[in-house]
Design goal:
This protein is an alpha+beta fold. Helices cover about 25% and strands about 40% of the residues.
């Protein structure tokens, strides 16, 4: 390459004005993001109390029998779950707190009869928390 060609290339492609300072910044942001992801995954993976309705039987216009299974990751802790009955019009027609005492196994089945003020068509669990 001749000196004229090198000079012309140098004018066309000048040297970078900024250094590569952004690389350590990008690495630091990526590391912080990875640490947050590990923390969030570990925090979200800790056990929470869950429950599901396994069966229900509408007994009359004012009663529904419900079978609820409560899953506790730590059986030494009690649990409370809010179970409700719903009418065909989606009105909430009855609700009760289901309490599971500490001890036993992680999966606990509770059978209850829920009183309603109108004929229920289904039952569901709204929420659960530890501590009964």
């Amino acid at each position: 390459m001749t000196d004229d060609a090198a000079a012309r290339l140098a004018r066309r492609y000048p040297p970078q004005r900024t250094g590569r300072w952004w690389i350590p910044v990008a690495v630091a942001i990526a590391a912080a993001g990875a640490l947050w992801l590990v923390w969030a995954g570990g925090y979200g993976a800790t056990g929470t109390v869950t429950a599901r309705v396994d069966a229900f039987d509408v007994r009359s216009d004012t009663a529904i029998a419900v079978t609820v299974t409560v899953d506790r990751p730590d059986p030494s802790m009690g649990a409370e779950c809010l179970v409700f009955a719903q009418a065909v019009s989606y009105d909430r027609v009855g609700e009760t707190q289901v309490r599971v005492d500490p001890g036993g196994t992680g999966l606990t089945t509770v059978r209850l009869e829920l009183r309603t003020f109108k004929r229920a068509t289904t039952a569901a669990v709204e929420s659960c928390r530890t501590g009964a």
